[in-house]
Structure formats: structure tokens, C-alpha cells
Amino acid sequence: MKHHILAALIASVFTLAACDQKAPEKPADTVIPASSEQKTADTQTPQGELPAIDAVMTHAPQVPPPVNRDYPAKVIVKMEVLEKVMKMADGVDYKYWTFGGQVPGQFIRVREGDQVEVQFSNHPTSTVPHNVDFHAVTGPGGGAEATFTAPGHTSTFSFKALQPGLYIYHCATAPVGMHIANGMYGLILVEPKEGLPKVDKEFYVVQGDFYTKGKYGEPGLQPFDMEKAIKEQPDYVVFNGHVGSIAGDNALKAKVGESVRIFVGNGGPNLVSSFHVIGEIFDKVYVEGGKLINENIQTTLVPAGGAAIVDFKLDVPGSFTLVDHSIFRAFNKGALGQLKVEGPENKEIYSGKMSDTVYQPEGGTIQTVPLTASEAAQVAAGPAKASNKEEQIKLGKTVYNANCMACHGVEGKGVEGAFPPLAGSDYLQADPKRGIHAILKGVSGKITVNGKEYNSVMPAMALNDEDAANVLTYVLNSFGNGGGQITAADVAKERAAK
Ligand SMILES: [Cu+2]
């Protein structure tokens, strides 16, 4: 409470100074009342006075313990961005972009009035810059501008948690939709000063939609599909980053008689969620994660880029299924989880026989697609190699979408002032070998493309000779460019030359 004394001191000094002024020289309407001055001083407490605490952060479905503090603190949040191939479904892999190595990012729990210092690191192996926009922040971009971070760098910024609630955070680097679609979101809870009512178990669940080249269940490493994302036609709609993340052996667990709270978020990027737990009624819903409490709710809407808190008590045992009640998403796209509850039956509340496997047959069977012998051979043989220019262009497009589009944009249009265009680039046309150098060594320093100056950094791309040749051939023959060809041998030669 030291800052109150300080505030009073500042206020009284101001009053003294004001008294010193000769009244006629000071027009009345510019006199600031001492009380408003005091208020300003109070909200601008220097951070140095607050005790510093490292945030306890947890991976889903775990939630950090309640804050349990009756004073504000400076809370240090360390976030690390990691781009990482992980399982989307059985036999299906996806190159996720993550906060902290998993989807969703870690749960952050602070108290209303806390000063939150975010130390935001982008791992050196990342292929693109990233940042974070906290919906709990009052300030430009929710911190996005302050945290825009190239691979191998750390940015720091601080914000005051002014308003209690459950908030999404997400990456907001261009193209924003792609970063979110790759899994860059999580939840931050700003507890009200008095805390939330105590419950026995808390869980962390975030829905997200994913867009892959292949259909649902098509095996292999699936690249992101921009076209499907723009059309809002996801192949996967899942809880906590992948199919089955909170089902079967990974199911959430609780006991009869316990009270349960689920912090539900929706990262999107596109779909809103009709969040429902089959066989339960939410006693309380903190609507949209805010202060308004609704009671006795069957299904609650969780907007993309939004959240909700649901509380309910467990009266009977069984398996309760979490779904997005846009129901094809649950049974055909993965938006299905389980809460397994153990304990004594209560025949009055529920007389019938609850089974663990009621929804399993439908949910389970469609999650793997059996391979024919020739498909299996194809997977074993690895990626196809191009034998002519046309095939190079075709394969190069996939490489472009997965590795270059994030910065150079759809149709190679680039982003003015940040990422130069590859469409009609006079810089590249002048010497297509520059493309090879760009991929192998990266590009930095001032360059001029189509009359516009760029002074930024492109990281070297970890592509093999084939992929590098294919993507450059694709670029040279797309976006209205004049054609040309780069072969794997050309790339190998440049690689050896350095
Ligand atoms: Cu990002």
C-alpha cells in the first residue's frame, strides 16, 4: 500500500505548488482538482514497487492454481514460439506453429491490477517472425507491435491487467489467419480481485479449426491449405490441437460429487463453437468469459477469438462427451472430448446404464483411414521427385505455400514495407540465382524491388536441393512472372560454391 502514501504525497505537493501560484495569473478552468491528480498518480504506480513473481504456466488441459493474492504483483510471463511437426490424428502429421510447443499455448493466470511483463522469444529454428496479441491488453494490437519478433530474438513488453475475465491470446503476424490456423493461440485468465468461487477441478480446453491439403484422415505430413482456409472449410475441428487430445486415455477425469470448471476458448481462426457437454447442464456460465453469469445452460456459444467459463457439479458417474454441437464437426472432424466421471450411481437422477463407449464407435472408426498396399508403398517411398519442369512447378507450389507464403503472401504479392513481392520482382528477374541465394543464405540489408526499398531480414530456409529448385521454378512460372527453370543441380552447385 506504499503507493497510496506516495500518491497522497504527490497530491499534497501539487496542492502546495498550486497555492504558490498567484491567483490572477492562472485561469480557473486549468486548475486540476487534487483528487483527479491523486487518481492519476494511483494508476501510474511505478512497476518497481510491485513484488516480482514468475507466472505459473500450464499446458492444456491443466490449469494453474488460483492466484490467491490480495495485492497486485509484477508477473513475469516467459513465452517461446516453436514451429514443430506434431500429430493431428492417427497417421496424420502437421507442422504446427506453437506458443510453448503445444496447441493451445500455455494457460496464464494473473490477478486484476497485476503488471504483466511478457518476455517473448521466437526460437532460432523458426522460419518466420511471430508476435502475440493478448485480448486482455489495453493498447495497440494487444501487444502485437511490441512483440513482433524475428527468429532467434526476444522482445519484452508490459501491460496492466485492468479488467477481469478470460481472454484469448493469439499470434497476429501477417498473414494473421495463417498463424492462427497453424495453432498460435491460448488463454489468459485475469482473476477478479476477490478471486473466482472455489471448485474441485479446473480444466483448460481450446477449440480450433485446421485446413490441410489432404482430406480428413489422409495420412502423411499435411501442408496448410490457404484456399480451404479462405473458404472456411476446415478438414479438422478439434479441442486442444489434435484429434483425441482429451478422449480415450487422455480423457479429463473427475469424481461424482465434485464441482468442475472448464475454461473454454476458441482460437478459430474461422468457426464459432456451440460448446456442449453431452449429459450435463452447466450450472453457471460466465458468458463470453466476462462478468455476466447465466445459469442452467445446455450449450454456450464461444466466438472465434473468444472464451467462456462453465461450472457444473457432477451428480452421476459415466462418460460425458464434450462437443461442438455443430455436430458433424464432432463426429467427422474431431471436435470431441470426454470427461470420465467415477463414483456411485444415483438411480434417481439417472436410472439407465451409462456406458463409456456410447459415442466411441462413431468417433473411433472414422479416425483412421486404412492404407492400400500401394498407398503404403507410396508413403514409404517418401516425397515424389519431379522429372520435368511441369512437375517441378506442381511440387514447388506446395513448398511455396508451406514455406514462403507466410511472408511473401498469396500470389507473391508481398507486404509493402516488410516483405518484397515475388510477383513481377525486377530484383529476381535480373538474376534468378538470387532466389537460390535467398533460400540458402537468407537476405538482409537494403534491397530495392520494383522501385521500393526493403531493409528487413529473410532467414535462410532449410530446404533440400529439390524443394529449393521446385519452389523457385514455381515462382518463376507463376504470379505473372516471365518463366525460367532452376534445377536441383543448380542449387547444389551454389550450395557447394559457398
Ligand atoms: Cu505467428
UniProtKB/TrEMBL annotation:
Cu cation binds at residues 130, 135, 170-171, 179, 184, 325. It is found in: Cell outer membrane. Residues 27-46 are annotated as: Disordered. It is a lipid-anchor. Residues 391-479 form the Cytochrome c domain. One of its GO terms (cellular component) is cell outer membrane. It comes from the Bacteria. It catalyses: nitric oxide + Fe(III)-[cytochrome c] + H2O = Fe(II)-[cytochrome c] + nitrite + 2 H(+). Its EC number is 1.7.2.1. InterPro entries: Cu-oxidase-like_N, Cupredoxin, Cyt_c-like_dom, Cyt_c-like_dom_sf, Cytochrome_c-type_DH, NO2-reductase_Cu. Residues 1-17 form the signal peptide. Its cofactor is Cu(+); Cu(2+). GO terms for molecular function: copper ion binding; electron transfer activity; heme binding; nitrite reductase (NO-forming) activity. Residues 33-46 have a biased composition (Polar residues). The keyword Methyltransferase does not apply. Keywords: Copper, Heme, Iron, Metal-binding, Oxidoreductase, Repeat, Signal. Belongs to the multicopper oxidase family. Homotrimer. This is Copper-containing nitrite reductase. The lineage of its organism: Bacteria, Pseudomonadati, Pseudomonadota, Betaproteobacteria, Neisseriales. The gene is aniA.
